[in-house]
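Feature request, filed as a ticket because there's no other form

It would be nice if the structure record came with a short human-readable summary line next to the tokens. Right now we just get the raw output. Example of a typical job, pasted below so the devs can see what we mean:
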Amino acid sequence: MTPEQTSWFAETFDALVANVGQALLGTERTIRLALVAMVAEGHLLLEDAPGTGKTSLAKALAATVEGTHHRIQFTPDLLPSDVTGVTIWDQGKRVFEFHPGPVFASVVLADEINRASPKTQAALLEVMEESNVTVDGVSHSVGRPFMVIATQNPIEQAGTYRLPEAQLDRFLMKTSLGYPDREASVEILSGAKDRTAGLSPRITTEGVGRLSDLALTVHVDESVLDYVARLLEATREDPRTAVGASVRGGLALVRCGRVWAASAGREYVVPDDVKALAQPVLAHRLVMDPEAEFAGVTAAQVIDRVLDQVPPPVMRVR
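Raw output as currently delivered:
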């Protein structure tokens, strides 16, 4: 990127964060992560208690980029065709017509995704990976940008279907909004019911595509790539994990690192970018050893230990 492009990227990214932040107070880091996922053309998994603003985040993102937003409430009786769409015979025209499902939107909120059956959950796999939906042998593009924000509650697990590891690996990041601090809570309680209603766009969907294209030009030095590879290997060698981070996880970390660096006004990735993103990008991809999990060890603790043990590359000044 040229210096002018780098400055435009950072200023635009900050403006998007500030705009979304008008609807979700006290959650700037999560908003940044969500926008990184969008610009990196990935998907976000939110695990949070009910009522923390997950729906508001999806609506605010869509409004900020002048895109469309659909919400799908996942329930045990939801069918795959309820998500992707269906082909219906039109007697008047005597042709089959495709009726797109709610997955055709810029931002799709898959609310309580773990309450749907595995078959319905799998209906999202193709579109999350390829941005296409295939119905009756015909592929339909969902457009650009396209982002799935899936939510699941850490409580009320009765009647839920745990997301398979292969599907978790499809999500670029996993994070949570959490509860706002007291000052933000007071401001939320004293304000309007729906803060997303008054948001105005700060960029077009075409502009988001331009951000995505520019992020691909951010330089990643071979030493940083080696650092990422060593982090992946360390998660696999840790005795507390049954399965470590995949190669897809490493690619995701590099993709997010490029966007994170550009949002900070840099045209190159540094090890601190990798460290800042390791938890949300890698933790949900680990499969814990049953004994370690029973002892209370979490994937987040494994990532913290790996970051402490694996030395980052040292910058050489010539």
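Something like this underneath would help us a lot:
The longest helix spans residues 3-21.
The domain at 25-203 is CATH 3.40.50.300 (Rossmann fold).
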